[in-house]
Structure formats: structure tokens, C-alpha cells
Amino acid sequence: MWCTMDECEALTSEMVSPQSRSHLTHETVPSTVCTITKRCLFAVVALVLAAAAFTSVARGPEPLPLLEVGGSPLPSILPHAPSFPISPLGANSRHTVPPPPPPSRAPSDELILKLGTRGLPVLGEGQRWRRDDEYGIFFNQRNAALKNIAPSYDTACGTIIVDLPDAETTSYHIVELAPYFSTVGPRYGNISIVHHMDLFLCDERVRVPPDSQCMGCGYLSTEGPCYAMVWAYDRGAFEPFRLPPDAGMRVGRGTRFTKLLLFVHYGLPYRGVTASQLRDAAYVESSGVRVRLVRSPRPLDAFSFEFMQTNMNIPPASNNLEFVSHMTADGVASMLGTDIAAGGGAVSLRMVHAHAHPHATRVSLHRLRHGQWTTLLELNPYCGYGECQHFHILTEPRIPAASGAGADEVATDAGGDASGAGVGSGGGSSPALRLGDALEFRCLYDNPEPFALHYGLSSGMEMCGAILVYTPHVWQSARQVPTWFGGHDGVQRLVHADGVARAPDERPQLHYDDEVPE
């Protein structure tokens, strides 16, 4: 490739620019450097040291295998990329995800899968589904309770599917998931329009759903094509999610899981930014997750489950109302019985994603055993979006030891596998979940809005639920059991700030306020 002096300077500037390095792969960088140095050396003398340094990095140890999978949330994809520029991933943000860490074992043992969108334009908002030929993000759902207050449609979604390489012959452990984002730029506060992302484990039958079914999650079932939601990102939780060092989630050979599906929910307006503004500004979106897998299994197999009830009804101008999602003892036995048996009578609850939206002021996870409640996690105050949305390491609570026990305090119950000490903060063991136990996730709400808070994805709607990661998991089991527990029988009560109930529990009527096109 011949080039002029101006072109050489532009290429060299791009090559050494931190904003553009994320767009160069280990295959393209050496070619670019070679071409520039051979054809245009006279134009880049002033930058030779910087170029040489960057070349040495690019030609260093062999990078981890990288399979980049991008696409559109539509079944039909344009044959070429959009002509407008893509915003730098993580520009002007301290939460930019770093490149994958250097491998601790042979590079061939690791694989990085990148599931994400590339350069999706924001198409605007309205009361209709996208056409098959529309490539981009269209906000076409909203909270019906807000239509006379904020008439804009505020919710959009997308789906990306990727094959696991050599899934029929190779077994993997998922050990890390790192979300990444583009931002809308300084003019709009450097925000991301992604509200949340969910990762599902699926079989060969999974397909990208049409626009009208994108928000339904109808692909999640014990019959497939997707069987488990194993990870979720929620707004502001920018740091990578890492499994405990002794555990991974098994996919590939011997399992049903040969494909990964990433569901992306976009939420606007956010901090005053609307979909119409971004359409007019020709903004394009590039967001997703990098999934790190290893071929050498870790000692323990991990898995996840979630529980959430959907019938909340927090009245307008109310305070200190607590909604409770629960997982019954029968639900624990049905969902986790095989794994509890494999764990010698218990599984270890290793991590929890404690999820609510910004109206929640406190959330907490509790275990019921023999009529006694034990608090496993409390976030008080709850920060809404941000740090509170990360997965939190769980540690068995410690209580004063009995007289003569020879220790100041003891754990109420140790975990049910070989995880032992050192899992939780402070060196404690993970909480155990046994047959006969039940779980509750409690969310305390203040609602200053002029409308009631119901379950949903749109603006001014709420959730109250938990995703838990546990060990051990019997991945060879022939029977696929549900990985979620839900329903419309959550309870709601008025409480003091210290959590003491001031009124009897009640079960609100189910409400769905999301408004979608016919």
C-alpha cells in the first residue's frame, strides 16, 4: 500500500493514539507498522521511538486467542459496517475495561469471546416494532404510568449470539466476564445508554428473536433453547465479574451449552439524554461483554440461580415499604437437590447480585432454617445504580462462641463443598444452603413519585431479586432443572427503618405497566 506523507502521518497518529488502540488487533498492528515503515519512513522519523515501542508490544508474546463476535439485534445484518465513526470504547471513563490479563498457563489454554454490538445507530423512538431492514436501536417500549408525564418511549433491546468454538470436543470453564461500553461523549456527560445485560447458556437451537419478542426472554426454559442466566450487568457496575479462584461454570463438551446469548437492554432518557437527541447527533453504540474461558477445569464447578417476585405495588408518595421476594424450601429442594447431595448435604453460596432500582434504600438477603432467620448480606444504604450492582462475595455470619469453645466466635454454618476458608471477606467460609432452608430477598422503598412503582424494565419501574452463584454443581446431570424461581406472590409490608414490621404482610395484585406496540 503506497501512501502520501499526510496519510502516513494520519496512520501513525492513529497507531499510537490510545483512543484507537482498542480498534487494532494483534493481526492488523504488525501489518500496519510494516507498511508505514517501508513506504513512509521519511514521514515518521519524529515518531520512530513511539512506533517502535508499540511494535514491540504488538509483536511480543502470542496474544490470547480472540474471537470477536459483533452484530445486530436484528435477524438481518447489513453487509458492511456503517460509514460513520464508532465512539471509542470507554472514552473519558475510568471504568474502561483493561485488556485481558496475561495468561497464567499456556496461551492455548485460554479463550476470550467478545459478544457485542458494533456501531449500532440510535434510530429514535416511537410506538411500532422495527422493520426487518432497520439496523440499529429503536426505543419502542415505555412505562404506561408515565405516558402523561414523560411521553417518550424509553426502552429498547438487542440480542447477540455466539458459538462456542469446538463445543462438541472441548470443555471450558467460564471464569471471568468483563463488560465494555461506548459513551455518548462529553457533551452528554459521557454516559452509557445500556441499562443492563444478561448472559444465557444455550443449545444449538437458539436464534435471534424478532423485535416483538426481544424483551420476552421466551428462550429461557427447562426445555431450552436457553437454560440458565448466569450473569447480569446493571447500570454502573463497570468492574469485571470474576468467579472464585477455585471454581468455574462449565460449558461445551458434555453439557447442553454450545452457544452463548447476550441480551442487552437500553434505557433512555438518562440524565436528561433522550433517544431523539442521540439520533440527531448520529451517535452509534458499541457495547458488550468479554467472556474469559479456560480449557483446564478448576477444582469446582459453579452454577447460578435467581429468584424474584413480580407483583410489587409501591403506592405514590410512600416511605418505608418493604417488598419481599422469596424462594421456598420446596423450590430449593427442586432446583438444587442434586447439587446439595453432591455437596455432602449442602451447597456453598459464593456470590450474590443484589438487584433493585434507584427507589430502593436498603436490600438484604436472608436464609431461613428451623424457624430462624440469618442475614447473609445487607446493603444499607443501597446506592441504586453503581457499585451496589456488582456481585458480592458471601461469608457465613459469625456469632459469639459458646462458653469454653476455645474461640471468640464461630460460623453459623460452613459451606457444603471443598471451598473451605478464605472464600469470603475476612477469611470466613461461604454460607451453606441445605434441604429445608428457604431464602428471602428484601427491598425497602421510598416512592416520592406521583405514580405507583410496579415491576418492570422501563423508567420509573422497580425490581427486587437476587442472582446467586454457588458450588458444587453436577453438570453431568441428565435432568435439566429450572434455574429461576418466581411468581406473583411476593409480600409487601410497612416497616420501621430498623426493619421491624409495623403492619401485616399483604400480597399486592400483579401489575404490568410496560406499554408496547400492538
Task: Report the β-strand fraction as a percent range.
Answer: 25-35%
Broad shape: globular
Rg calc: 25 Å
- Number of discrete helical segments: 6
- Biggest β-sheet, characterized? 7 strands, mixed
Q: Helical content, roughly? A: 10-25%
| Overall tally of domains | 3
* Oligomerization category of the chains in this entry: single chain
Low-pLDDT windows of residues: 1-106, 403-410, 418-427
Task: Provide the residue-averaged pLDDT.
Answer: 77
Helix and strand content put the structural class at mainly beta
Number of strands: 31
Distance between the termini: 53 Å
Could you walk me through the main structural features you see in this protein, from its secondary elements to its overall organization?
With 518 residues, the chain is mainly β. It folds into three domains: 1-60, no CATH class; 65-294, no CATH class; 302-515, Jelly Rolls (Sandwich). It contains six helices and 31 strands. The strands form eight sheets. Strands 1, 2, 7, 10, 11, 14 and 15 form a seven-stranded mixed β-sheet that branches. Strands 16, 19, 22, 25, 28 and 29 form a six-stranded mixed β-sheet that branches. Strand 23 (398-400) and strand 24 form a beta hairpin. Helix 1 (5-16) packs antiparallel against helix 3 (28-39). The longest helix is centred in the middle third of the chain and has 14 residues, at 329-342. It is globular and about 60 Å long. It starts with a helix and ends with a strand. Residues 1-106, 403-410 and 418-427 have low confidence and may be disordered.
